[in-house]
Amino acid sequence: MTEKTLRKGNEALAEGAIRAGVRFFAGYPITPQNEVPEYMSAHIADEGGAFVQAESELAAINMVYGAAATGTRAMTSSSSPGISLKQEGITYLASADLPCLIVNVMRGGPGLGSISGAQGDYFQATRGGGNGDYRVIVLAPNSVEELGNFPKLAFDLAEKYRMPAMILADGILGQMMESMAFNFDPVDPNKLGKFDWAVDIHKNGRAKANVFSYKGDNLIADVVERAKRYGLIEKTEARFEERNCENADVILVAYGLSSRACLEAVNHAKEQGLKVGLFRPITLWPFPEKQIAALAGHCKGILVAEMNAGQMIEDVRWAVNGRIPVRHYGRFGGIVPDPSEIKEELIKFANHAE
Amino acid sequence: MKKEIIISGFGGQGVLSMGKILAYSGLVAGKEVTWMPAYGPEQRGGTANVTVIVSDDRISSPVLSSYDIAIVLNQPSLDKFLPKVKPGGMLIYDGNGIINPPTRGDITIYRIDAMAKAAEMHNNKVFNMIVLGGLLRVVPFLPDDALERALYKTLPERHHDLIPLNMKAVDEGKEIIKKCV
Which of A321, A335, B109, B151 is exposed most, by the fewest CB atoms within 10 A? Predict the structure, then answer.
């Protein structure tokens, strides 16, 4: 644990990534994540790493593909439309079973959208915008502190399961400053375990390794093996935070920045005597489906609050399976939900659920 | 203790830095802080604003729609944020360029002519510190030495010789802030 300092979200993320052992960064500028490459360009070389401002988002993700194949902790970051451009590279990385980190500091969409914070890319992150049967581990921080600490978690998971991981943040989290501390010691990449799959023959003098994204005759066996791995991750790696859910009548489900507004709404509603709680998925894939199914066993209704027109609500409904009412409260197009509006919705819903 | 503060003025006036120094002051005093800038295109030439929350406890929402304290440094900011001060809250404004002074019976209003004072001190850059001095005089929610310790933390060492001048500005701010009746 380091001393608490005041950091901007994007800078905490970049510093956290370097501390997590990232030694290759490639990206292309876009608001509101520009402080990430800016910080990387100033500091990654001090640790012997490489920074590349690529000619495009496509080039950046494919450079990450190359770097990841050598077993290097490699990452790229962008914002919504830039992440759309990277989808081809992401599905190739998934197909090659390579760990890496992709950061999306979300802005308004669709299309070029706006530079304001939003959560419109939940579908893209959890379903994949690329082709084929693949998954990406998706972590959703809701504070500057988590932005700084999640790169290490992302790489630990990505390497354990040999797959890409994504941190899904938003423009407000990226731009705001908060007091934060890093909860891990800097990782020395030279002391990380060597991967037998890595194309680093020059470094270690080991037998030749190859990384393929085209599988030829092995495709079916590969896809089946990967699906099994995904199943294991769904069973074991879901992360979440619960506040006052035990005796709650109505439970808010929210992630990222909107979960902060929801926490404030829950605190105010509690003062008015309402039995309300907050459930926050920290991993969006794997989604904490079992936990939400369990909540549906003892509460009367669930309100999903997102900065979009209704995306995560589909996963919540899937988990609840029709047993209790599930409603949506969304603000989008760059508007951040106001805690007092969420509280009103919560009260309306609680009265209705009685 | 929890103070929800909006600081708003012209882009380039030092609004974001003022918020940063205030946030650092909270941090050195052991408080939880958030600093949330309006980062849209409105910063270019128009008004800029920043929301700073200083609290004893973990801060839930960094984004707010009403405030305990509004510090407004030009007319557009005053017009925008006067209605968003919570009843019982406070508004502090710089009289420079204000044509329609604020009127609201259910909040406390202070005027601080920090721009004029900074000009008198022949240093426009200490404007920020004059305002912060005035703020902490009328709402002393942070210990006396917090601003100075924050300056040592935020300023690069080569500028540490400027800290006494900045602290003089803080004292000037404490002197010149006036309650409006």
Answer: A321
